[in-house]
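PROTOCOL LOG
Step 1. Enter all chains and additional molecules of the complex.
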Amino acid sequence: MSLTQNISTSISSSSSSFLAYSVFPYRNRDVSLPSKNFGTCRCVAIPQEEKTTYKTNVSRNANMAKLQAGYLFPEIARRRNAHLPKYPDSKVISLGIGDTTEPIPEVITSAMSKRSQALSTLQGYSGYGAEQGEKPLRAAIVSTFYGGLGIDEDDIFVSDGAKCDISRLQVLFGSEATIAVQDPSYPAYVDSSVIMGQTGLYQKDAEKYGNIEYMRCNPENGFFPDLSKVCRADIIFFCSPNNPTGSAATREQLTQLVQFAKDNGSIIVYDSAYAMYISDDKPRSIFEIPGAKEVALETASFSKYAGFTGVRLGWTVVPKELLFLDGFPVAKDFNRIVCTCFNGASNVVQAGGLACLSPEGRNAMQKVVGFYKENADIIMDTFNSLGFNVYGGRNAPYVWVHFPGRSSWDVFSEILEKTHVVTTPGSGFGPGGEGFIRVSAFGHRDNVLEACRRFKQLYK
Amino acid sequence: MSLTQNISTSISSSSSSFLAYSVFPYRNRDVSLPSKNFGTCRCVAIPQEEKTTYKTNVSRNANMAKLQAGYLFPEIARRRNAHLPKYPDSKVISLGIGDTTEPIPEVITSAMSKRSQALSTLQGYSGYGAEQGEKPLRAAIVSTFYGGLGIDEDDIFVSDGAKCDISRLQVLFGSEATIAVQDPSYPAYVDSSVIMGQTGLYQKDAEKYGNIEYMRCNPENGFFPDLSKVCRADIIFFCSPNNPTGSAATREQLTQLVQFAKDNGSIIVYDSAYAMYISDDKPRSIFEIPGAKEVALETASFSKYAGFTGVRLGWTVVPKELLFLDGFPVAKDFNRIVCTCFNGASNVVQAGGLACLSPEGRNAMQKVVGFYKENADIIMDTFNSLGFNVYGGRNAPYVWVHFPGRSSWDVFSEILEKTHVVTTPGSGFGPGGEGFIRVSAFGHRDNVLEACRRFKQLYK
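Step 2. Run joint prediction.
Step 3. Record the structure below.
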């Protein structure tokens, strides 16, 4: 086919192919020409299979190439999917990815439903909202979560989830920043840091990236790092209640952390996505610690409170008091990032968020959280009864089970093969997670009970 | 107040302040201590006002400091808000930011409403979705917009909007990439490039950033750059129909562009957010051009078709055929970015997107687009009748009006002061926009008519 013919085919089909009804079998009508190499051919002898493969002259981002294998949770999904055809009759139960399973309380979904419907009316329609979020929602977040802590409405940036904001924060801090993470920790901190070029290469032996400070958290130190051994980093990612260990830091520990940050001039990125799971008097927010506003920002989420994992809503608090070395407010730069790289969370979803923070909504969220906490109790009791050392679970939806001396991925595979239950291998959260398995409390009650029955059979 | 007292205040208030009802006047109860300087005091004489201001030791990202003033649209909103108190009785009409105004067709909102409601049921609940988007939506995007063009479902990445994906693409390409933009162009390309560190400093005289190739588009070249004068860049951002000039590239021009990219080994980021506004036979997708899949990806949006500016939904097409210099597929790295830095678009919103692509939904979107195109006609006729040279508008919701020899911001201010109509100064889109004003066709009909009456009074 000549180039002319090809173009004329494209022209004649363009008006019908755009917004075309899919009644015609278009799929096999790819009319693009075999490609030619222009400008990128750099060697004389081209291997046979590459002859017709055009490559651009754009170098792959070297930071992307540093990333190891897949992001943890897609990798687990891949292994789960590979398991299914092998055991077609098995009832696979997922206590792996930390995905919520219980319906969203009706008071919340009906608010989203109403907002959706209103968008089809002149009065109820709204276009671009404030990138930082709708004022009533920002105000409700302050009064619900930060009452008395000196956080203002304009310190709140509503987002489409904590994971997304973590990446935006990394873009804000830039490639010259250095980071510290709890080890083990939620993989998005490390992976987004690698992507931004803050790290060195992955060191296979250590199972660590260069230039990241891994703060070991294990049973010996009560899952709080020995700060006297931690090197200074610009940014300290700290998650409490912790994903994956389920451990919540005490007021004294967080006071130490804030002091450590102050002594070093570091910024704490405090991930409080599980704060509502705290049952005792441990802090729900880093801003409960005096002076924290000068060294910390906090990111949070509706995902695990209201079942919003698929709905997508979170927020980040950046206090005006948090300043860079040159005195420039971090919040001003974050505002610029939010305005340039984001366009605000969906208005429909924000209506859901506002309903979450109504008296009925808060009550309903507490019930959802309470349900998952009961699941955590069941899982903890099970592993305790089997003689395992079990951590977390009390103030978090994650149970952290110790299999001393064993490989996490081996245990993950053993559990999947023999019980058809998907868990998460601790080493997926960093080398400090090796020998542990994270069991998520997110699941229907009968699934959690059934999974625990199978655990008892396997490890009795 | 001592530290001990302070801590005990925090402890005693913590359980009630978390999820507290906002009946207590907490706002004045900020109990944080006056801060002290630890570790960052680097000079002996501290100015009086800085004595109590704690600064971290974290350097501000130098790329953020390169950014000029505010992002364009928040800046316009700021000027609009400053205008209001000066003219409290004026009826301000916004034809500025490009924000949709017409209600979303009911067939679409009812799908979102239903999906919301379903989330409160066991059967209808869903948690984390695929980061790349729901399969039926990805399939519908292919059949609606890319039928016959050889694009597969798994080339589609559903997003929360084109602006957000542009930033994610910049993160993907990294700080070593070089970019070219149409001049004038949508500011997010340049600003996200600055943030990623791809550029030099802002050069006040030239009104350009260093290390960006600005491809001048003006009436003289039919708003298509003279590619013989364009230096190679890794990434070429190209928007057609163009924001802000409203010009849509012809098939011959896009064929030239694809050839230019191929000759240089560049990657085209083709922004087709306004494709449905094309009335004639110009290409709606870069993939209508033979060979484009090897040199281009395409980002698009429901915002201007279905009034989704506040609802947030878009997509990016990254063909498998698009390869980096080392042969690594761009799509694989983009997939990793999407999985690490994003968690998928809201499930409620994706239900709306799927409804957009049903036969009724497509019909309804065409009507919305048709309505705004009539507005564009009215605006074009107005400025034509006043003797201005007017561009765009035929295949785009933007009318690009020439005020030769005048400053865009001066004209913007003149129009705002004298007609209370908000437009957008062309120079906000780059130096090539100087002397132009972008008038958006997004508005209620009576507002557009009234704005045009006022334009006629001002410029008669």
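Step 4. Note key features.
Residues 1-46 of chain A have pLDDT under 50 and may be disordered.
DSSP finds 14 helices and 15 strands in chain A.
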